[in-house]
Structure formats: structure tokens, C-alpha cells
Amino acid sequence: KRWAGLPLSFTRYFLIEKPDQWIKFFSSVGLFNTVDEELYLFRIFDITVEQTFTNKIFNEGTIILHVNDESSSTIEIKRVLNPFKVKEMIADYVEFERRRRGMKVGEFYS
Question: Are 53 and 91 in contact (CB under 8 A)?
């Protein structure tokens, strides 16, 4: 997360790949009490970017991942620097993971 363009948060996000097995999105929130979550990238079916006027000034925004997961239907990645570039990077990894598994978006709604 960022505030006024400066990194200031105890929230971290990671994309980690175990070669030839999976790519996962991890989030870790908190300093003393932490909450760690993980998500297989192929579960993401849509990505949205939201920017307020202030976000546009500092070139940051919120990336919303719409997912097919039991724990939550959306994941928000807040105050990301260069959000459109990061969105495209995530989308590329999602498509790569789906191709590798031979999956299509329609398979999630069964």
C-alpha cells in the first residue's frame, strides 16, 4: 500500500511460482497480528482497476481481483503504484496458468 505516493503499510503481496506446478498470489497483512492468504491464479476470472482523483495524481490505484474462491469473491489490492501495468502483469500470469492447465473461464461456473 502507498500513501501520497510513499510506501507506508504492513501489507505485502507476492506472486510465487513453483515451476511446472502452480502460480499463487499471496497476501500478508499486519505487523503484530498477521493474516496470510493464498490464491491459485487460475481462479481469477476478472480484474478491475479503480482510481480516485487523488490516486491519479500519484499514479496509484486499487486492483480488484474477482475470484471463484470459497473464502471470498473479491480481493482488493489497495494503493498500488502503476496499477494498469500491474493489472496487465497479473492478467498475463493468469492466462499463462490457465493455458498450462488447459482451463477456460466457463469451467468455473459449473
Answer: no
Per residue in 37-95, pLDDT tens? 888 888 899 999 999 999 999 999 999 999 987 878 899 998 889 999 999 999 999 99
Please report, as a single letter, which amino acid is at residue 68: N
- Cβ atoms 27, 11 nearer than 8 A: yes
Please classify residue 3 by burial: count the beta carbons closer than 10 Å to its beta carbon, then call 0-12 exposed, 13-18 middle and 19+ buried: exposed
Contact indicator for 63, 83 with CB cutoff of 8 Å = yes
Q: pTM score > 0.85 for this model?
A: no
Strand partners, 61: 80
The contacts of residue 104 (CB under 8 Å, 6+ apart) are 98
